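Moderator note: this is an archived Q&A kept for reference. The question asked for a predicted structure of one protein chain; the sequence and the answer are reproduced below.
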Amino acid sequence: MKSACRKGYCFALARLGAHEDAEILAAYLERYPPPHEPRYEQPEALGALLRLDAQLSVAHSGPFMATTVGSQP
């Protein structure tokens, strides 16, 4: 599937705005792309998921967010 097509799906899912759409994006981020492939679509998928999290008051994006709180000892 071409990159522009995947980006379109991310946009569409964000616009639909249902809990099921957030689950689809979270499943995508868990499974794709494999470790040896570039992660070109992940910013679009994560952005869409963050929008849905805010809209639906959920936290599906939590596992995909890098957190840095202070320095490690």
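Archived answer notes: Residues 3-64 form one domain.
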